[in-house]
Structure formats: C-alpha cells, structure tokens
Specification:
Order of helices and strands of chain A: HEEEEEEEEEEHEHEHHHHHHHEHEH
Number of domains of chain A: 2
Helix content of chain A: 25-40%
Structural class of chain A: alpha/beta
CATH architecture of the largest domain in chain A: 3-Layer(aba) Sandwich
CATH topology of the largest domain in chain A: Rossmann fold
Shape of chain A: globular
Radius of gyration of chain A: 20 Å
CATH class of the largest domain in chain A: Alpha Beta
Oligomer: homodimer
Strand order of the largest sheet of chain A: 1-4-8-5-11-12-13-14
CATH superfamily of the largest domain in chain A: Alpha/Beta hydrolase fold, catalytic domain
Mean pLDDT of chain A: 95
Number of helices of chain A: 12
Strand content of chain A: 15-25%
Chain lengths: 385, 385
C-alpha cells in the first residue's frame, strides 16, 4: 500500500494506484523465487461488512490495473469502464472491485523492468519466466493482505479469462463465482505462432540489446510496434476490418509508394506507435511466454475436467464471441464441457458479433446484459442485497 | 534469351533459366517507364506446330519461374513439380509450359535489386511501384517475343490466380482457358494489414537502410524473417498447425526461457531463416504493394462482372480450399458469380482440406484431379490431341 494508507483505508474508500509490498518472497512454478515482490492494484467501491462483495477483475495481456476510473498517465477512462463502475454490470455501488497489474507486467507490479534487489539494476532477461499460475498466486497474496478470504467473483476476458480458469483450478474455495470471457483452456499452435512473431520482432530490434535496453537508455520501439501490429490483427475479425476500413484510402488516389495509402495501414501504424508509449517490450516477452505456457489440462494429467474437480461449487459464466478467431467459441465450449464433467454449474453464451476478440472490452451491449444477468443471479444466490 | 539461344531453340527444347531482354520500354500503370526490362523465365515441354498448346503458369508471391524441373540454386524440385511435369495434370509431354519471374521479383526479372540504367546502381526504392496489371503486361511482352499469340491456358494460385484474373480482364483474346486457384478479386483490409506488418518489419530493420542495403553491402535479414513468419501463419490453417505441431515441445520439458520451446516456434524460425536465403527484402515490399493495390472491380467502375465482360469466351476453372483463411472460399464464389454475370463459363470446386492457403502447391490429390479434369475437357474443346 502507499505510504500512510492502511488496508482499512483502501477497503473503505477505494484506492487507485496502490502498491502492496509483499512481506514474503514469491516462489514461482519454475522454482525461482522473487524477493521484494510489489503488486500494483486499484480498487473501486467499498467492501461490505461481511467482506462478501469483493470481485477480482483479471486484466488482459496489454492492459493494467486501471479497469475503471481514470488512468493516471493517459487521463482516459479505465479500460473496462463500460463494464465496471457505478450502475454498470460490475456495479461499484454494489461490489468492491479489485484489479491488480499482473506479475511481469509494466504497470507497477514486479516485472522485468523492476530493479533486481540482488544487483540494484533492472532485471531485464534475468527476470524469471512466470506462468498464469504465478500471476494468480500473486493476486491471492494481495487478497491475503487486504483480508479478503473469499471473493464473490473472479472475472476476466482474454488472458484475464485464463487467470479466472487458473483461479478455479487453484483456489476454488476462495471464490463464489467465476466469469470467463473470450478465453481458452490452453494456447493453440496458432496462438503460440503469433506470439513468437511478436517476440522475434522485439528481439530483432537492435535497441532491444539482449533485454538490457533500460540500463542502456534506449528502447526497442520499432520491434515492439511491429509485435503490436501483428497481434492487433488477431484481436479483430476480418469482417470488422472490412466494415471499418475496407479498402478506403487515406487521401484521394494511391501514393504509388510506401506511405500508408490505405486507412487500415494508418490505423495499424497508429496502434503500434501508441502501444510503445504505454507498454514495455520485455514485459511483452514475459507475458506472451506465460500465455504460451498456459495449458490447464496438461497441468492436471491431461484432463481439463480434473483441473476443475475442486471447483464444482463455483458458479461459472462462460462467454464467447462468434467472430473471435484468436480464442474461438469451440475453446469456450471445451471449458463448459469440462466444467459439466466436473459437476460444476456453467452458463454459456456465445455472443453474435462481428467485433472479434476485442469485443470483450468494446461496446457490446449483449455481453453487458449477459454479464449483468449472471452476476445478479449469483448475487442473489450469495445473499448479497 | 540467353546468349546463343534463339526463340526457336527454346520452343523446341524448353529452357530453364532463360532471360528475355525486352527491346521496348515498359510503361507502367503509374505512368513510370522501365527501360532495359529483362524477364527471366523457364519453359517445359515443346510448343506444337499450331502453337496452340502453350500454358502460362503465374507464380505466387515468394516463388519464381522454376515451377518444374530443378531449381538451379537450391537443387530442389520446382515449386509446382507435383502439378507441372511429364504425366502431371499440367502434362509437359502435352503442353508447352511457360513460367516467368514477376516484374519486381528477385529471380532475374527486373526489380528493385536490378541495376537502374540511369544511375548504374541498384534501383532500391527508386524502383517504381508496379501493379498486377504491370506484371501481366510484362508476361504478354514475353509471349510476343516467343511468338505465342494465344495461350491454351493461364494458370495460377494465390497471387498467380490474381494474375490469371488480370489476364482475363486485359488479354481475354489471348487465352482459351483460365485456372484461378485460392485467390481473390481484391485484397481485403485484413490482407493489407498482414502485408503492412511485414513491410514495417522490414523497414524497421536498421540494415534496410532506406532500401539502399544492396549498395551498402548489408541485408535486412531479421526484418525479412519476421515478415515471412507473420505471413507464413496466414498460409496455414489453424487446424493444420494444430495437427502438425499442437503444443509439442522441442525437447523434454520447458526451457523456462525464450528459446524455441515449442515445435511451432522452431518451425516458424526456420521458415524465416530459409526465406532470407532465397528472397530479397525490397522485392517483398514491391510485390506485397502490388497485391494490396489489386482490386479488379475498382479498375472497372466498381463491377467485377464488367472486368470479365470481354472474357465471356474463356473457359474458367475456379478452385478454393475450405480452410484457406487468407483468400477464403467466398472470394472465389464472388469471382464465379461475376464470371457468370459476364456470361463466361466457369467451373467451381471448393476442395475440402485442412491444409489452408498453401494447399495449392502441396500434395493435394483432389486439386490435382480437378485440375487434370478441367484441362482435359478444355483440351478437347480446343482440339488438342
């Protein structure tokens, strides 16, 4: 927590921009240990007297703990403001919403850009490889520090959805319900392939300097921008790209050169350029690696149902998008089948949209309605007023 | 043609590795003019006395004129040896098969790596932007030089299929039949987006040197490899990647690092590394640009049927692959509908396969059988024995 702030203050008033300095080292799945772990997080709303209304929001790859409110750096609304806020499906007048920057991220939680206490310099590639399970373990430490034993819900889309599944596997007793949106139980060969392109683009940048760029005062901006451009295509559907841009030109007529002739080129370049302003290249390497390593069934003897065996009392909402080709609907169906096989209660909705994977944080009223409905029903079952 | 070879020799015996030095300058769609145009090409089989058995094969983006026989540099079989050769669907005992390296390519035809006669140095980015129509115009010049007035067929897959469509729009009187495989009548926003990622990866490489790398004795190998890796994913289906690689590891256990842990990573890295050995970065820029500019309907007042209006006597075979997400089946159906609207005869087959876009030059027996059947029927109609 920030200086002068206590857990009590945060639970009372909410905290945007708090940092927990964990007293205990974090032992990772790899066997490595992180000393001096810090977890940056935000909270929105108030914890009730029974401590039963806390919701953990797990953020996707390139976002951070500022799910609601205003981002202190960009001044923009939090990335999930349409979902989490007063009167929203994740109603902060009703729920105490917590969102923490993931382990190995660049939003304040310990990651490759942090100072290695052993050397006094940024970790760079000396940072240990982490997994989704490690990210979740760090979140559980934060909840311990906040004195929250059991969450009303763990909610997330994309990589956030994978964290939700990992929560259900590792800490089912600490959650009443779970919402997994546009995710998958493991990274496919194509998912790994796209991430590898991004990593190679970063590592090909001479300013990457073997990951030591921070110490050398440079940044692999071009490589990171290319990585973002490639990934960004996978977040949108072909139909959405066609609808938004088609073959529309930037100006009248072709340039007969290599400027951005087409609006879609200009859009992608902008996506790349904006990303390097807000994200760290090494964090991108580590988080994509964690996702590629994610395979919940493999970690449970090859059975996804076995991963959820202890989660049979958790109420699950699983949502997918018809045009999501990054984590397509069959991946969500596989999750639902495994939950059913484990004896867990699962609601599943495939939302018809052409917005592709990114639909989970865009203006998608059907998702918002489905989410509100699921949470209302779960809240009733939990006895939340 | 090579020194000492005459058109007569080539028509008689075939020529692998011939170069036509065009006597006339080539005026491009942009208005620019290329002096000293050279067209590198191969022929297989013999032209018959009636000069009626010539087939032009149009190659895809990253391949070259060595469609059959052996590639002189790699020693490997030509890229379409399964389709073009003695006893193959494109039977070189029967047809005189011609394949020319495209304009702006790097297989010997004039491109950005060629010497600019105006300066005596490689063109680099001074090379004019070319279009698919320009590529086709250069091929028509080659046919003029070979004394072939009318082709029995123009055949191609992917970018080759786009050239086939351009042939039908521009020179319908010079072709009896046309085979368009796994192509599209225009580049979609997603197609352009993936190409732009590749171009940005190349241009981000400090060894690109504004396109002047050849003169400076360096090569943007890392950028070109990343471009290839990103593109290569689009050539394969998710199902094929899953079948071939899944989440299989390179060794026992994870490395907990950034080596190629997964086989799919190793495969992609290999694809990138092998590509830079055989392809030129600036050619990649120019050819992808030509494809992005390709929009056959737009060039004909917005009507694809209008583009094919003069081609109503050409017999078309259109083939697509069920798992091709680069140029999916609906794009081929659109071509067929436009051909029908123009009054042309079109056979259409969607081939069920999980091999994705690359199926057109892989071992795909259904395609080979369909192609053989189409050509046999056309040959009969043409009166070829």
């Amino acid at each position: 927590m920030s200086d002068g702030e206590t857990a009590g203050d945060i639970l009372e008033a909410g905290a945007e921009g708090a940092v927990l300095a964990s007293p205990a080292p974090l032992r990772l799945e790899s066997g490595a240990v992180i000393d001096g772990l810090e977890i940056a997080y935000c909270t929105y709303g108030r914890l009730n007297a029974e401590r039963s209304n806390a919701v953990l929001v797990c953020h996707p790859l390139t976002l951070d703990q500022h799910a609601s409110g205003r981002h202190p750096k960009t001044g923009k609304a939090g990335w999930w403001s349409q979902v989490a806020g007063p009167g929203r499906p994740l109603d902060t007048d009703r729920y105490f919403v917590i969102c923490a920057n993931v382990l190995s991220g660049c939003g304040g939680t310990t990651g490759p850009g942090s100072i290695d206490p052993a050397t006094g310099e940024p970790y760079g590639m000396k940072f240990p490889v982490v997994t989704v399970a490690d990210m979740v373990r760090a979140q559980a430490l934060l909840l311990d520090a906040l004195g929250i034993e059991r969450l009303f819900a763990v909610v997330g889309g994309s990589m956030g959805g994978m964290q939700v599944l990992q929560w259900a596997a590792d800490y089912p007793e600490r959650m009443f319900s779970a919402v997994c949106i546009g995710a998958a139980p493991r990274h496919s060969a194509q998912n790994i392939a796209f991430h590898e392109v991004g990593r190679q683009a970063i590592m090909a940048d001479p300013y990457w300097r073997g990951g030591d760029y921070a110490r050398q005062g440079v940044r692999p901006e071009k490589g990171l921008a290319v990585a973002r451009m490639a990934a960004h295509i996978t977040y949108l559907s072909e139909a959405a790209l066609q609808r938004k841009f088609g073959r529309e030109l930037q100006r009248d007529g072709l340039s007969w050169g290599f400027d951005a002739d087409f609006q879609v080129e200009s859009y992608l370049r902008h996506q790349g350029a904006a990303f390097v302003d807000r994200f760290d290249a090494n964090s991108y390497l580590y988080i994509t690696r964690a996702l590629d390593y994610f395979d919940l069934a493999a970690a449970h003897g090859g059975s996804l149902a076995e991963a959820f065996r202890r989660a049979r009392d958790v109420r699950f909402g699983v949502f997918s998008f018809s045009s999501d080709w990054l984590y397509p609907t069959p991946e969500s169906r596989q999750i639902v089948r495994a939950l059913n096989a484990a004896g867990a209660r699962a609601s599943f909705v495939e939302i018809e949209t052409d917005k592709g994977h990114d639909a989970f944080f865009l203006d998608e009223p059907v998702l918002h309605a489905a989410l509100a409905g699921f949470l209302a029903s779960a809240a009733q079952a939990r006895g939340l007023a």
